[in-house]
Design goal:
The chain is of the alpha/beta class. Helix content is about 55%, strand content about 15%. It has one domain: Alpha-Beta Complex (2-enoyl-CoA Hydratase, Chain A, domain 1), CATH 3.90.226. The chain binds ligand LDRUDXIG. One of its GO terms (molecular function) is methylglutaconyl-CoA hydratase activity.
Length: about 250
């Protein structure tokens, strides 16, 4: 399977895994499927919490798929595509269940959005992160409210402007990661214990914790159409396509 979203329920935990061949970057179909899977699993009474993770031992998620961005030629398609990120984050926020995210390696752009959409986030010390959108000629507009909620406006705008990687240690100090491990084995051992404990907790208490944690984010729904339009229109510029081609080349020869 080249691109997939899979889910299984183990011990009252819905484990959702996504994967794509290019650093787990996200095409539109995977975004749509991920959003739907999170909502479907969240609606199941037996599910106490949701674990979102990605395939492999390298990058957690490289954000928007370059190949899909290069193929987009008109506003309707780009609006639909960036709307997919809004749907995933909205699903994480509104699914009614605690969402835990497992970050095993570097993450950029929309992948940082997914880490910030978590209620609790595990990572390894190699899980540096960056808002690289400006390199393409766009910005972290759709994921912005979710990132700002974790790190504050000043740090968000600094990350969006410089597009530099911050370390996992930085991400822990700035409330994105809640647990940082030396390696994947150590992270998974901690995660398993954490999820087992979560599964034994009161469903009603967890639901209320989810509710109060996201209080004050109701306006995200109203923000989204304009935020989607920002990325969706900028990506149509010729310079954005040239930028993506040169990033792909830089990554290929590095
Ligand atoms: C949500 C909004 C916007 C966005 O999300 S914009 C997307 C931003 N993403 C990037 O800028 C990703 C750039 N990629 C990297 O920095 C690195 O690849 C990585 C993610 C840190 C992973 O590094 P690693 O060393 O593990 O892997 P490689 O660099 O060797 O990459 C392997 C392979 O994957 C290809 N690739 C990387 N990123 C993407 C991508 N986004 N789409 C497609 N393909 C990607 C890379 O080119 C390599 O391919 P090869 O063929 O093997 O060369 C907007 C909003 O919020 O509004």
């Amino acid at each position: 399977m080249n691109e997939f979203v899979a889910s299984e329920i183990k011990n009252n935990i819905a484990e959702i895994t996504f994967g794509t061949l290019k650093s787990n970057s996200l095409p539109g179909a995977i975004l749509e499927k991920l959003a739907k899977t999170i909502l479907d699993e969240g609606a199941k009474e037996e599910v106490k919490a949701i674990l979102v993770k990605s395939e492999g031992e390298k990058a957690f998620c490289a954000g928007a798929s370059f190949d899909e961005l290069l193929a987009i030629e008109e506003l309707e398609a780009s609006t639909q595509f960036f709307g997919g990120f809004a749907k995933v984050l909205n699903a994480m926020r509104n699914c009614g269940k605690i969402v835990v995210v497992r970050v095993q390696g570097k993450t950029t752009g929309g992948g940082v959005g997914i880490a910030c959409g978590a209620d609790y986030c595990f990572a390894t010390k190699d899980s540096a992160l960056a808002l690289t959108e400006i390199n393409l000629g766009i910005g972290p507009f759709v994921i912005g409210p979710y990132v700002e909620r974790k790190i504050g406006k000043s740090q968000f705008s600094a990350m969006a402007i410089d597009a530099d990687f911050r370390s996992a240690e930085w991400a822990e100090q700035h409330n994105i990661y809640h647990s940082v491990s030396e390696n994947i084995g150590e992270m998974d051992a901690k995660l398993e214990k954490f999820m087992q404990t979560l599964a034994s907790r009161s469903s009603d208490a967890l639901a209320l914790i989810k509710k109060v944690s996201w209080e004050g984010t109701e306006h995200f729904n109203e923000l989204m159409p304009a935020r989607i339009h920002m990325s969706a229109s900028l990506i149509l510029e010729d310079s954005a396509k040239k930028n993506i081609e040169s990033i792909k080349e830089r990554l290929r020869v590095k």
